[in-house]
Structures are given as C-alpha cells and as structure tokens.
C-alpha cells in the first residue's frame, strides 16, 4: 500500500461531497452482486435467477431470493427448490460476509461442500439439504460460531462426521440425516450443549450408542433411526437427557432388554424402538411415563405379555407393538387409555377376545389386530362408540358370530378387513351406508346374502390430483403420480394416507411446481389435515374454495409467488392450527375473517405487502402463540387486537411503518411473551419501563426506531433476557448498571444509540455474554476489570467511541478496537490473551514499538495494527504465531529488515507491510508461504532483486512491490504464478524486457510496470494472451517500436497508459475496437469484478493506479478507478494522423496524445466522445480547423490543443464557453475568436454556425432548468435521508467510514 498524503475533510466541503458520495453507498452491494453473478454464470441454465442482472436492478436486494438489511447489505440468500444445477466452488463466500441465513435446499447442486463457507462468520442458519452434495463434510463448518440451525440432510455426504462440528456452541437444530456418514472421532467430539434437535438418521453409524450424545444435556429430540448401531440402549440415557421428549432408535441392531430406566424420562412423549433385536419383554414400569403419546416397539423379539400398567398412560394416542412375539391376552386396562386413536397389535400370538373396556376408546381411528389367535364375537359397542373409526383390520383370526349391523354407525370408515375368520350370517345392509368406504375384504368367512352397491363417490382423490398435475408446467417431481404406477395415490410422491387409504397429507415443499391452484379440486380432498406447498413456483391468487378443507390443521403456502389478496374464506377453516403464508407477493388488507381461526397457534403472514386489517372487526386470536406480520406495509399505531392475544409467546412486527409509542398495556396483557421484535419501524417516545413486567421475556428487539429517553434501568430485572437489541435509536444517557443483573444475557447490541457514559463494571457479571456491540457511541474511559469474567465472549465490538484504556480480557477470542482514539504504546499484556484469535487495533494513534510479548498469544490468527504511529523493527516473536493467517502492519513508521522467519508462517494468507520505512532485500524465505493470497510490501525502501522464490506462490492473486528501490529483472519464472490477478511493480529501478513467461498469468486484470527502466518492444502477446486485462500501465519506461495492434484484442481494457516512452509509428486504428471503452455503463456495471474485494482479502486490498488527470497526477483507488476510462500515449514519437476510429470509444473520460509528432486534422467526429472530461492534443503538428462537434462535449472540463498548426475560428457554445484560458489554444497562429484576443476575419467568420439565435434559446433553457434541477436533485437525495431515519444513520456512518478513503487520494503537480 502506497504512502500518501492525507487531509481532513472540512465541514464546508461536505455539501459538495454529498453530491457524489451516495454512489459509494452502493459499493458493498455491488461487490456482493458481482459475487452472486459470478456464481450464477457457473450454473447450468439457472432460469430461476433471471432477475439476477445489473440491467434489471443495480441493487441485488431486489433479486429473487435475496434479502438485505436496511443498509442494503445482503443478509439472507434463500433459493430453495430453484432448480439450481451446479457446484458451489465459484460462490465467493468472503464477499457475502454479512449473510445470516443461507438456504439452498432441494436443488440439483452437487460436488463437495466448499471449506470457505467458514468465511460466513455471521451465519446463523445453513440449509443445504436435499441436494446431491458428495464427499465429506468440511471441518471448517465448525468455525461458524453463530450457527443455530444446521441442515445438511438428504445428500450423498460420506466419511466421518468432523469432530470440529462440536465447536458449534450455539447450534440448536442439527440434522445430518439421510446421507452416508460414518462415526466421528468420539474422543474429540465434545457435547453439543445447546442442541435441542439432533438427527443423524439414515446414515452408516456403527458401534454402540454414540457417547457424546449422552452429554447433550438439552436434547428434546433425538433421531438415530436407520443406522447400524449395536449393543444395548444405555441406562445413562435417562439420567443425562432429562429433557428428552422424542427418542427414535428405529431400524438399528440394538439388543438386550428395554431399559426400565427409560421411565425416568418424565418429559418423554414419543418412544420409537421398532425394528431392532430387543428382547426380555415390555418393562411394566414404562406405564409410569405419564406424558407418553406414542409407543412403538414393533418388529422386536420381546415376547411376554402386554403389561396391564400400559393402561396408566392416559395421554397415549398411538401404540404399535406388531410382530413382537407377544403371547398374552389383551389387558382390559388398555381400555383406560381413552386418548388412543391408533392401535397396531398384529402379527403376535394374542389370545381371547376384545376386552369390554375397549368400547371406551371413543377416539379410535385406526385399529389393527390381524394375524393373532383371537376369537369370540365382535362387540356392537365398538362401532357405536368408535365414531372416528376409519380403519378396522382384524383379519386372520378366529372371530365368530355376525357382523354387527351397528357397523353402519362408523360413518367415517374407509378400510374394513374381516377376511379369514369364522364370521357367519348375512352381510349387513348398513354397509351400503358407509359412503367413505374404499377398501373392503370379507373373504374366507361363512357369510351369506347380498352386498350393498351404495359405495360410489364423486370424483376420486386420485383423479383430483391428476387433474391438477396436468395443469402444471413440467411437474417432473410428480412423475410417480400415475395410475399406471399405482392405482392407489397413497404411494405417490408427497402423498400420505391414513390406514383406510384416504389422503390426509399432501406435502410437496421444494418440488419445483410451476402453475396455479385453480385446477386443484379441494372438495375431493376433504380429508386433508395438512397441505404443504412451500418453496415452489406457484403463482396467481389463493383460491377461495380452499375453505372446503374443513379438517385442515396446517396450511403452508409460504415462499411462492402468490399475489392479490388473502381470501377471507380461509377464516372458515375452523380446525386450523398452523397457518404460514409468508414470503409471497400478497397485498391488500389482512382479512378480518382470519380472526375466526379460534384454534390457530402459529400465524405467519410475514414478507408480503399486506396492509392493516379492519381493526374494528378483527377479534383477538386467543389461541395463537406465534404471530409474525414482519416485512409488510402496516401503518399507524401498534395493532390493537394483538394486545388481547393473551397466549402470545412470539411477536414479530419488524420492518413495517408503525408509529406512535410502544403501548404500556403490552406488558400487562401479553404476560407469556418470550420474544418481542419491533425492529425497523418508526416507534417513538421512551422505552416503556413496564416491559420489565414481561418476566418470561428472552428476546427484546427494538433497534432501528426513533426511541428516546435513555435505557430504563428496570430492564435489568427481566432475569431471563438473553438478547437485548436497542441499536440505532437516539436513546442517549448511560448504560444502566442494572443490566449487570441479566445473568442469562448472551447478546447485547446498543450501537449508534448516542450513549454517553463509561461502561458499567456490572456488565462483567453477565457471564453468558458472547456478543457485545456498543460501537458508534460516545463511551469514555476504558474496560472494567470485571470484563475478564466474560469467558464466553466471541464477538466484541466497541469501535468509534472515546475509549482509551485496555482492560484485562483474558478469555477473549476476538478483540476489535479499530477506529477509536487509542493512544500510547500497545500493552504487553495482550500476550496474556491465550485464547485470542483476532486482534484488531488498526486506525488508532498508538505509538512506540510492537511489544514482542504478542508472540505469546499463540492461537492468534489475525493481527491488524495498521494505520498507527508504531515505530521500531518488526519483532521476530511475531514469527512464532504459527496459526497466523492475516498480518497487517501497514501505515506505520516501522524500520529495519523484514524478518526472514516470517517465511515459517505456513498458514499466512495475507501479509501487508506497506507504507513503512523497511529496508534491505525481500527475504527469499517469503517464497515458503504456500498459502499466501496477497503480498503487499509497497512504499518502503526495499532494494535488491525480486527473489526468484516469490514465484513459487501459486495461490497469490495480489502482489504489490511498488514504490521501492528494487532492481534487476522480473524473474523469468513468474509465469508459474497462474493465480495472479493484480501485479504492481511501478516506481522501482527494474530493467530488462517484459519476460515472455508472464503470458501464462492469464488471470491478470491489472498490470502496472510504470516508472521503471524496462526496454525493448511492447510484447504482442500482451493482447493475445492476457485477455482479462483491464488496466495496462507501462508509462515512464524505455519501450520502443510501434504500439502493437494486438492490444485491441483486450476487450476488457479500460485504462491504457503508454506515456513517456520511445514509441514511434502510427496509432493503430484498431484501438477503436476496445469495447470496454465504448460505453462507461458497461464498465460501471462490472466494477466489482477486478477491484480487489472479490479476491477475498480480509481488509479488501485494493488496486491503486497513478494517472495523469487534467495536468496533475492522481492516485486513484477502487471506487474511482471503476469510473476512470482513458488512454494516455503522450511523450512519445508517434506520427501520422489521429485514427478516426478512436471516436468510437464513447466511454472515454480522458484522452492524452500530447507531445508526439501527430499530423493531419483533429477527427471530425470527436464529438462522439460524449463522456470526455479531459482532452490533450498539445505539442503535435495538427492542422486545419477545430471540429465544431467539439462544442457538444458537455462534460469537457480540461482542454489543451496548444502548439499545433490549427487555424480558423474556435467553436463556441456549451461547455467551451467555460474554457476561457487563452493558453489552451496558444501556439496556433491561425486560430481566432473567443477566448483569444485575435478577432476573426470575414472569411474565418463564415465558420460560425448559421442559427446563432439557437444558442440563445439553449442558454435560456439551460438557465431555466438549473433551478428546478437543483431542487429535484437536492430533495431527491436529502429528502430520503430526512424522512428515512435508518438510511440517514447508515449514510452518515458511511461518511465517517470513508474519511480514510478520501484521504488516500493524493495529488501532486506534474
């Protein structure tokens, strides 16, 4: 990085800077956009990403599947079921470092999971499930310390599960099921203490019960089904996993007895032990698990009786013990389990008959007891009491007597299997009244009489589904939907039936379904209880006849493209428990009829364009616990009906336009609230102290509002609070010491809140804190000593305050104090931070030497000390930091030689020692840094040759050695650096020719060899082989010969600087084919491609190029460089005419052909260069008149045609009237007219334009348009900032952050 003059932007300059600094706000988004576009280009026919184009929107925030925060940075990428076909290798995760959610489930992605996903340090949710990923899981995923939800199920992943995944200390949902994964190294796999949902089902796990799971103390759900696990079920499972609600060990090889200790799992609701080798009977003590709802023990060799104690399980809903070698009667106590609706006891040796108590099982729906030794008559009470019965299967027994006529009372019956028994008598005519009966088998009995024919239905369920399928566009996922494949739809993809064969669930998420719901006959699917079509390509309106699904309990149509309004008929679905319509394009008022859903618990209409309902008719949803209306167009005050939704535990109204105060009654009415999110609205006034009454509150999100009045100290009494976000408000005042009472607090974010106090030492008592963000305030003093107790700290941000003292933070892993006002020496105590991974003290005023004690922080991976006043030499102890990947000491006053031991840091990727006073040769040992991606040694006093060993760095993409005193030739082996994209060698004493091997560096986009002593001809292969070049700078060398016409092959070239050489001959007319110079819009749209950020550099190492601009030299960096398109061929010996083809380059900003031997006239169509701001043709032999089209260059602000042989009248009008310096036309004796004092003769006056009054009209309109133009431009920008507070805060914060960028542009007079 070059040393540059810096300057402070004065307040009076700010209005002028505002006119162009808004474009800087887009830089981050454009870098993110380029990363996405690069990945898109690698995919096969990514039709779903058609909106991903800078031609559609310069902001990626409007692209399909992309979600941004209010500042315009991408935070979510959600592309499930988008038919994406390709790999992830070209997705630059480092450019998307703000991502919190990445969802690519149910696509056609393949290949390995990239290890650089670890760059997504803020990621909380990663879903790559249901793809074709193969190979092993990269252990680097274990570095994603914010991960809460990890889903990699249903892929082809194999190999051991990396033990590093156990570093995910926050993960709660962990699903690696349906792969080919093997055992991890259990000796290194530490318990996942935060996980509640853990599934490794359908893998290749072997051996005994995984030991680490026995210490995952918060587990509520554990699924190890369909593996190859052996041994016994451990007794300690019940003592260690006391919160377990669901345990699934189905389809393994567990043996031995069922542990009686399972009865200690008092919270257990679901127990699945089927398909194992268990023996020893059913432990009677299982009957004491009072909350058990599901008991599955089927396909084991248990033997023995059904314990009568099972009758104590009064919550039991489902029991399945088929094929378990049971040999007893059916205990009558089973009839006490009055919640039973599913009984499966088939394929055993049960004897006797039905207990009379079974008549009390009034909720019975599916009953199977076939293939036993049962006998006796079928009780009529079963059918009169079992009114919910849909399946009755008692075949292959010895039942006798008649079929009870009362069977006609079971009107919902769909399956009736009585075959292979000893039933006699006639077939009851009442069977004909069973309108829903679809499967009937009475064979192999002793029955007589007729069979009723009243079993016709209207349109069958199968026909209804097939009709809808035919209306969809290429429904490949529904290929199994065919009567040729199966006459029963129950085996079709996504279809679930009950035991009677009726469809009860239709689950088709991520199935790439494209079409509408208009042809789906809901009336024919009246038995549906669950309909899940989320994440498809469905569009159109939501059909009102969905109200025919009277049994529906769950409706999920989220993440589609449904539009128009929500049909009020949905309010008729009285059984609805779960309603999800989020992430569509629904609009209009929310129907008040939805408040008729009296059983709904989960209610999510977020991410739409919905407006306020009629609050006068919207009654409270008394059963709802989860309510989200986030990211909609709600206006006005806090929605009144919500204050009466008394059972709410989760409320999200974020990103709406709500105003007014936060109501006090919220805390008295919603006493069960656990999570409250009001982020990004316009709430004002004080934070209600009454929120402290929400004693169950865990998450409080009030950021990005207009709240004032300080932080109420009483918030410190909400003892269960885990997350507190109050950022971007105008709170003011101190951080209350009472916050230290929040002992459960894990995350606190109060940045940009105008706080003006010290940091209270009581905050150090919140020992569960792992995330602290207090930046952009006015906090003073230093760190409290108590902060040393925060042993779980992972992310700590307190930048841009008034802090000046560093405390004892012995357990910290990340310490970022950059951009503060820290002064004095760096404390040697930092070496005591043995857990530190990142230390950033950049951009302060620290002085003195770098303490060698830092070398004792041996886990350090990133060390940033840039832009301070540090002096002395680089301590050799830094070379002991064996884990170091990023080292930046640039912008200091360091002296001495570069330590040779730096070459031992084998993990180092980024090394920046620029802008210091280092001397001596570049150590050849740096060639051992095989992982190095960026090497920046510019602006020092280094001498000697470039070491040959540097060319071994095969991964290097960015090399800057400019502004030193290096000598000799470029190493011939440089061609081996095939990853190189930017090479900066300017301002040295290098000599010789350009090595031929450089042609193998085909990824080069920037080549700067200026201000050296290179000689010979400019190689033709520069144009033939380096097709990606955008910047070619060879100025101030000793190149000779002609300009090779092959340079015109560089279709991406935007800067060509060959000035100050010994070039001769004509200017190749083919330079007019440089297409990137033909339109500046094209380059602007691609600016992120070569500017450095996309290389993944930790601090965004940037290309900086010196150009001569309007007679002065400027150092231009990324943001400006992208706009700078030009050619400089000055100070050579070029001859002949200026090629007319150069006027095709309409995107040129500057053109300098001065100080050559060019003759002929100025090209007539010079006016085509409509973007030109600087034109220098001086000191040539040009003749003839100045073309009138020159006056059409409305952006021209610098012109020099002096010292030529031009003649005639100087054109007038437009921008030329401003260029009133006579010297720019001097040395042309034949010129006359303004601004020269020489008047034109009558012959010369004939060159004046005929319609002189037209100039006057133009001026009048120009002046008339200036006023309205200023008003529109001013308020178009400042109006947004005035009315949109979040943008205003983001903008001015951005201005602060870019002070340094402005200060890096240095200018010196030529």
Automatic annotation (TrEMBL):
Stored SMART domains: LRR_SD22, LRR_TYP
Membrane topology: Single-pass type I membrane protein
Domain Leucine-rich repeat-containing N-terminal plant-type: 30-69, 459-498
Enzymatic reactions: L-threonyl-[protein] + ATP = O-phospho-L-threonyl-[protein] + ADP + H(+); L-seryl-[protein] + ATP = O-phospho-L-seryl-[protein] + ADP + H(+)
Keyword annotations of the record: ATP-binding, Cell membrane, Glycoprotein, Leucine-rich repeat, Membrane, Nucleotide-binding, Phosphoprotein, Receptor, Repeat, Signal, Transferase, Transmembrane, Transmembrane helix
Top EC class of this enzyme: transferase
Any GO CC annotation of this UniProt entry: plasma membrane
Primary localisation category: membrane
Residues annotated as domain Disease resistance R13L4/SHOC-2-like LRR: 201-451, 900-987
Pfam family, one: LRR_1
EC number, UniProt record: 2.7.11.1
Family: Belongs to the RLP family.
UniProt name for this protein: non-specific serine/threonine protein kinase
